Amino acid sequence: MAITSIIMLTRNGLDLTKRCIDSVIRHTPEPYEFVFIDNGSTDDTPAYLENVPNATVILNTDNRGFAAGNNQGFAAARGEYILLLNNDTIVTPEWLSGLQSWLERDPSIGIVGPVSNHVAPIQRVQNPIYQNPDQLEAAANLWRMQHLNSGFYSHKLIGFCMLFHRSLLDRIGGLDERFYPGNYEDDDFSIRARISGKNLWVARDVFIHHEGQGTFRENRVDYQLSSLQNAEKFRQKWSVGLSPFEIDQFGYNPSDIVAREPFFIPERHYIPLKNS
Q1: pLDDT: which is higher, 17 or 225
Q2: Which of 61, 184, 242, 274 has the maximum number of C-beta atoms within 10 A of its C-beta?
């Protein structure tokens, strides 16, 4: 059975990371490896990661950001499946097999993501029926049973949890590192996947918990400022006819961008992966 490389960035927030890793170990019978990229943690995170079984650990001395860190993970990954997973998530029973099943049943799907409690509206479940992590597993099991085999095409996916075949990296490259430290690199990745001819899919039958902005809070990074700065970089790259504030606060239509870019041009759309 094909291996999944679970790529996870960390920068402090050890309690969140432990909770996420514990949930993966508990709920993932499928073959997988961890690829951890620590972006300069000053707590005990690096020592903890070094002792996680079946893991490759990359320790950066400073914060290289979400895109660059994940690109390091892409280069180190050995799996046929590549999965980006934020360290402020908690996964649930059948999460990985549920996501994989969509990729396997429809070759047109390039990236698949789950639904969650704290995510952009396209993947958000309103008023999920649990109040704390102790109730999460039962709630997720009920949700999966009620929504089994349901999902929908999406105009973009959010990078808190994304699964795709390794071949997608060969097709479109990695994440665009201009979007430092984080925000809009997942929008950009989604758009480039669509321009390359692949579809995006939301698996309604897979629910995972997401704390949301966990790493930003743990490291006292101004999430709103970072988002607005990267919205401007996104506007410039894709010639979006809105202000950064409008893009960030009210959204934009990714399909408008895809419609203007009918052909995948490697010089414009492919992001080479660096060696380190």
Answers
A1: 17
A2: 184
